[in-house]
Amino acid sequence: MNVTPMNSLAQIYDREFRVRGLRQQGWGRGLMAVAVLIWLWLGYLLVFPFSADQGAHLKSVACESRAFHQNGRFAVSYRSDTGERCDAERDWGPITAGLLLSLPFAVLGTGMYVSGTSTLRTAAYAADIARLNATKEA
Questions:
Q1: Measured between alpha carbons, how far is 18 from 51 in angstroms, rounded to an integer?
Q2: pTM higher than 0.70 for the full model?
Q3: Please, are residues 108 and 116 in contact by the beta-carbon 8 Å criterion?
Q4: Residues 82/98/26/120 CA torsion (nearest 10 deg)
């Protein structure tokens, strides 16, 4: 008679343990998704061409992408290939800041996802051991 309440308490604890692991995995996926979105935006800024405004009454300048620029046979530097206005429009400072901003999201997301996965595998392992012990005793 004492076995049933303990068994139900163990099942409740096991269920909560697994839910906690799933929740950690979900948060990890979400944080990694934020980091990936930031990386996709930074990739867009580096790869695609853009236009830079020169003022209220002047025509905008078409600029090549920072990643694929070349003003002759060899690419020297982005500033010399495209000009100062294009270089100022896509400065390295905000791009580097975006990369640094994404790192905590990526690290925390990876850690939480790994922790949640470890929790779920531990719960599955404990359930398998309990099942093997129960069949051994029977």
A1: 51
A2: yes
A3: no
A4: 100
